[in-house]
Amino acid sequence: MRLYRDALALDRHSGGPQQKISDGAAFLWRSELAGQPRDTAAWRGLYGYANSALPRPGNGLADLHVLLVQAVMGDDPALDARSRQMAELAREGRYPPGSYLPALARGLATFERRDFAGAIEALAPLAGENERIGGSRAQHDSLPC
């Protein structure tokens, strides 16, 4: 967590909004998957920043991380609203990730509720499609599907 505070925390990260959200959320998520306790204050900071700096969908990789932050913070209404916006853009042919991220959002929320059977059911059909959002192989490997 010292690395997070020194380089990735919002007040230390030198990148733009998309990079701050993507790097911060990915690091916090991976640290939890590795067994570290949840840093609720760090997630809360990302949550506030994500909702103000990236209020609408537009970039699949950044949107993935906004959805992750919203799921971790348990903000189902915001998660649902962003998912509906992405689905509408996809129906209009204006969102390259298509329906992948709205489906992933449901799986993330289910995972956060610790309904692991439901999360598997929601996420399994998405396996092999995460290239639709861009990003590196390391980022893809950290996704729950």
The N- and C-terminal alpha carbons lie at a distance of: 25 Å
What is the helix/strand order?
HHHHHHHH
What fraction strand? under 5%
Structural class assignment: mainly alpha
Count every beta strand, where a strand is a DSSP E run of 2 or more residues: 0
What can you tell me about this protein's structure?
The protein has eight helices and no strands. By secondary structure, the protein is mainly α. It is globular. α2 runs antiparallel to α3, α5 runs antiparallel to α6 (100-112) and α6 (100-112) runs antiparallel to α7. The protein starts with a helix and ends with a helix. The model has no long low-confidence stretch (mean pLDDT 89).
Entry keywords:
145 residues; mainly alpha
In short:
64% of the residues lie in helices and 0% in strands. The chain has 145 residues and is mainly α.
SSE topology sketch:
Blueprint: H1 2-8, H2 17-33, H3 40-53, H4 60-72, H5 76-91, H6 100-112, H7 116-123, H8 137-141
Helix pairs in contact: 2-3, 2-4, 3-4, 4-6, 5-6, 6-7
